[in-house]
Amino acid sequence: MKKFLLLACTMVLVATQAQTPFEKGMTKAFSLWQSGDMNGAEQLFERIAKAEPNEWLPNYYVAQINSLKSWEEKDINVLTAQLGKAQEYIDVAKNISPDNPEIMVMQAHIYTNWVAYDGATYGMKYGGIVAGIYEKAYVLAPKNPRVVSSRAEWGMGSARYFGTDITPYCEAMKNAVELFDTFEPETPFSPNWGKERAQQVVAECQ
Predict the structure, then answer these.
(1) C or N: which end of the chain has fewer Cβ atoms within 10 Å?
(2) CATH annotation of 16-205
(3) Where along the chain do its domains lie?
(4) What gap in Å lies between CA 30 and CA 16, rounded to an integer?
(5) CB-based contacts of 129-132 (< 8 A; 24+ apart in sequence)
(6) pLDDT tens digits, residue range 70-120?
């Protein structure tokens, strides 16, 4: 479960001279992230979020970075701070863009981080919520590869826990890989991660 998310972050290619301040900031933030400066990227996304209160994407990426940081975190105080911040920013993103499947997936990931940290404590609290989020997101966006792959991997983890057949989820993950091949983000800054993780899961299925 702790390998649930593998970020595939690519440089944003937008002509510099044609960029708005928002676009310039987002381009710089992604550049920092790709260079390995996750904290610098996070701080810049935070500044963009404050300057652009109607844009959900910078809030989404602050949440994603804190979600990613928490995967291998063992200190409950650090984990609580990271996931608390992730929740704060994803809540802002939800208010800006309600019923957004990409935001739903990230919300599910944040809850999943808690389950991954301590399944006995948080599995009962968040398990049903995560499943419900994925079902709603799937109804809204059945061709979104992050929706399909995240929903499939959550189902696979649950199936393994209860000792049931994971074959349907492996097939769903194969479908997700195909969807990644044809998916086109709405903007150069829209979420476009997840293909490598989906391919890894398919390989493990075989």
Answers:
(1) C
(2) 1.25.40.10
(3) 16-205
(4) 14
(5) 130/154, 131/155, 131/158
(6) 998 999 999 999 999 999 999 999 999 999 999 999 999 999 999 999 999
Residue ranges of the chain with per-residue pLDDT less than 50: 1-16
The pair of structure tokens assigned to 27 is: 């381009």
Closest CA to 63 of 39, 37, 93, 38: 93
End-to-end Cα spacing for the chain: 18
Number of C-beta neighbours around residue 198 at 10 A: 27
**How many Cα atoms are found within 13 Å in the side-chain-facing hemisphere of 89?**
28
Q: Which residue has the tokens 């979600």?
A: 67
Q: How many CB atoms lie within 10 A of CB 108?
A: 24
131-144 residues labelled b (16+ CB within 10 A) or e (exposed): eebbeebbeebeeb
Say how many residues make up the chain. 206
